[in-house]
């Protein structure tokens, strides 16, 4: 009798272990950009690959456009395990204590995607991701978005044109310094609130890659846009370390592959998505698009360069110099 119930108990246990093994692993991926952006599309691609490669062992849910959490909340949600993956912009890692990520925000530090990839695909990128581990976060990949344009309700040609404008920025001290360098008044604000703030005049202008500007309809409430290409905006895909380390090794490996595939995809579509968004803004006729002359762009670059020196103590001289070395940027050569 005793033996009999022991066997029954063991069988029941084996069944429940097997059932637990069959339970899908839920991954919630939350982000603030629209579905129809490089990040939104890459997140959907990641979902597809993650579910395919794990043969359904992972149930992957994507929440676009701040529908689950806004900027600050999403990072807190990741830390307590309420979501498992995010891809915040590199300008939003300061509040997490990883101030070094703000090196990506330095104005004019990257001329193009090739220069940027020397960092995101190289040793400096790895070094930056390693800074997240002591904070209980694992950096999984860098995803491209693109180069920013400035927008406002007045034409922006010369550095003086920015004077006195209230400009919405992401939560980066480097962006704060960049805006102050041309006499603008920076205002940190969650991405989800920008459209309304522009519409009601709480802020006068902002900066963003075209895909973000267009999908948030900012062009409807900004009369002017200047193709300044003065800075970069991109993402780091991150996860909770405890969650990641607790995954079955085979699932983790499959997810790593899914992320590698989604990264290739994100970086392949980013430029084209932004180019197409610019054409849509142009076609809308709502915003006047201005291309600065080389001399105007140089004047902006010279004015904003002081941010590099000013932010040295915050970012770390070694990191800034490591980026200069990789990209060939020489502040003395302007
Ligand atoms: C912003 O806040 O402007 C961007 O970081 C939004 C995003 O995620 O692209």
Give the SSE layout.
Elements: H1 2-22, E1 25-30, H2 38-53, E2 58-63, H3 71-80, E3 85-86, H4 113-120, H5 123-130, E4 137-147, E5 149-152, E6 166-169, H6 173-181, E7 185-188, H7 194-200, E8 205-208, H8 210-215, E9 224-226, E10 232-240, H9 241-245, H10 249-284, E11 288-290, H11 294-304, H12 306-310, H13 312-315, H14 317-327
Helix pairs in contact: 2-10
The structure holds (2S)-2-hydroxybutanedioic acid.
Any overview of this molecule?
The protein is of the alpha/beta class. The chain has one domain: 3-Layer(aba) Sandwich (D-Maltodextrin-Binding Protein, domain 2). The protein is built from 14 helices and 11 strands. A 6-stranded mixed beta sheet has the order 7-6-8-5-9-11. The termini are far apart. The relative contact order is 0.17. The mean pLDDT is 95. The structure holds (2S)-2-hydroxybutanedioic acid.
Give the SSE string.
Answer: HEHEHEHHEEEHEHEHEEHHEHHHH
Structural class, from secondary structure content? alpha/beta
Question: Which stretches are poorly predicted, pLDDT < 50 over at least 5 residues?
Answer: none
Number of strands: 11
Radius of gyration in whole Å, from Cα? 22 Å
CATH topology: D-Maltodextrin-Binding Protein, domain 2
Q: Reading side by side through the largest sheet, how are the strands ordered?
A: 7-6-8-5-9-11
Instruction: Please tell me what the overall shape is.
Output: globular
Q: How many alpha or pi helices?
A: 14
Q: Give the termini separation.
A: 89 Å
Portion in beta strands: 15-25%
CATH classification, class level:
Alpha Beta
Biggest sheet layout = 6 strands, mixed
CATH superfamily: Bacterial extracellular solute-binding protein, family 7
What is the correct CATH architecture?
3-Layer(aba) Sandwich
Average predicted local confidence, pLDDT: 95
């Amino acid at each position: 009798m005793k033996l009999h119930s022991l066997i029954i108990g063991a069988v029941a246990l084996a069944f429940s272990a097997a059932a637990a093994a069959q339970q899908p692993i839920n991954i919630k991926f939350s982000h603030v950009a629209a579905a129809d952006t490089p990040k939104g599309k890459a997140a959907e691609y990641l979902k597809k690959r993650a579910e395919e490669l794990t043969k359904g062992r992972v149930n992957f849910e994507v929440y676009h456009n701040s529908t689950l959490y806004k900027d600050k909340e999403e990072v807190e949600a990741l830390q307590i395990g309420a979501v498992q993956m995010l891809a915040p912009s590199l300008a939003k890692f300061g509040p997490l204590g990883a101030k070094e990520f703000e090196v990506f925000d330095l104005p004019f530090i990257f001329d193009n995607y090739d220069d940027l990839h020397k960092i995101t695909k190289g040793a400096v990128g790895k070094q930056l991701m390693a800074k997240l581990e002591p904070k209980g976060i694992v950096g999984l990949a860098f995803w491209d978005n693109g180069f920013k344009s400035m927008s406002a309700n007045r034409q922006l040609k010369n550095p003086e044109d920015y004077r006195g404008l209230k400009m919405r920025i992401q939560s980066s001290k480097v962006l704060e310094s960049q805006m102050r360098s041309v006499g603008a008044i920076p205002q940190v604000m969650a991405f989800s609130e920008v459209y309304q703030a522009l519409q009601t005049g709480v802020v006068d202008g902002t900066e963003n890659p075209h895909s973000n500007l267009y999908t948030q309809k900012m062009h409807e409430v900004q009369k002017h846009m200047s193709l300044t290409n003065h800075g970069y905006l991109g993402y780091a895909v991150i996860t909770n370390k405890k969650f990641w380390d607790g995954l079955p090794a085979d699932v983790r490996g499959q997810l790593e592959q899914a992320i590698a595939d989604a990264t290739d995809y994100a970086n392949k579509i980013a430029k084209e998505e932004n180019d197409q968004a610019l054409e849509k803004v142009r076609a809308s006729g709502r915003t006047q698009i201005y291309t600065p002359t080389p001399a105007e762009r140089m004047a902006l670059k010279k004015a904003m360069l002081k941010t590099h020196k000013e932010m040295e103590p915050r970012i770390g001289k070694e990191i800034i110099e490591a980026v200069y070395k990789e990209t060939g940027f020489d502040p003395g050569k302007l």
